Amino acid sequence: MTSRRDAFDGFVLDAAARLEATCGQAFPRVEFAVEDVPRGPAPWDHLEVALGRLYPAVGSSAARIVVYRRPVETRVTDRRDVAALVADIVTEQVAGLLGVPPEELDPGFGD
Question: What is the CATH number of the domain that holds 48?
Fold first, then answer.
């Protein structure tokens, strides 16, 4: 039996793998992480609680995309909805890193 935390980690990895397959060589060097909650608002955050955050690459370190498990889980109840929301968050953050609209990476973005 898989825990909710492990399942959530799997959703993030699955979403990243799908985008990497779609982007091919254009996929950026990026690390993915899951944290339970945001540590605090970033200067670029809006008033709502962040569901994910992109930290740009610094020096030789890769860019980092963090998805926040608890805020995501509070917005949806069904496991399929969690997977779909995680996929949208990962797509949105990778698109921000590449400087393209999310729909360019995933035509079904937001559905």
Answer: 3.30.2010.20
